[in-house]
Specification:
InterPro entries: Tscrpt_reg_HTH_GntR, WH-like_DNA-bd_sf, WH_DNA-bd_sf
GO molecular function, one term: DNA binding
Protein name: DNA-binding transcriptional regulator YhcF, GntR family
CATH architecture of the largest domain: Orthogonal Bundle
Pfam families: GntR
CATH topology of the largest domain: Arc Repressor Mutant, subunit A
Radius of gyration: 16 Å
Keywords: DNA-binding, Transcription, Transcription regulation
Number of domains: 2
Distance between the termini: 18 Å
Largest sheet: 2 strands, antiparallel
Strand order of the largest sheet: 1-2
Order of helices and strands: HHHEEHH
Oligomer: single chain
Number of helices: 5
Structural class: mainly alpha
């Protein structure tokens, strides 16, 4: 898994890290049962503070993407509580869609964007299975 951090971005480093790990899971670059690097190793590799990596891992755990194993460290373990996932997604989308409405983006345009992004994840995921 290749992670890149944009130090000039307005987005917090731990959010960038969290999002890239979620993208990695969605695209099947990292899979259920895979280990993430230790907090220390990842912080050194990327050149960020250990507390930043720890915060990203903590959020991923709270959101149900990883679990902590004493022997193996941080392991990909996606919580498949679909009802909770739908509720969380709905809450996240409300803000995103409100922004879209404020910018006069149509429902059709939103659907096209969603379809395009969803297909990217599905295609990338199926290519990994081949």
């Amino acid at each position: 898994m290749f992670l890149t951090i944009d130090f000039n971005s307005e987005e917090a480093l731990y959010i960038q890290l969290r999002n890239q790990i979620i993208f990695g899971i969605a695209c099947a670059e990292i899979r259920e049962g895979d280990n993430l690097p230790s907090v220390r190793d990842l912080a050194e590799d990327i050149g960020i503070n250990m507390h930043t990596v720890n915060k990203a891992y903590t959020i991923l755990k709270q959101e149900g993407y990883v679990k902590l194993d004493r022997r193996r460290g941080t392991v990909i373990s996606v919580d498949t509580n679909k009802m909770k996932a739908i509720e969380d997604l709905s809450n996240d989308l409300k803000v995103i869609l409100a922004k879209a409405v404020c910018k006069n983006i149509s429902c059709k345009e939103i659907h096209e964007i969603i379809d395009e992004i969803f297909c990217e994840f599905v295609i990338n995921s199926s290519e990994e299975d081949d």
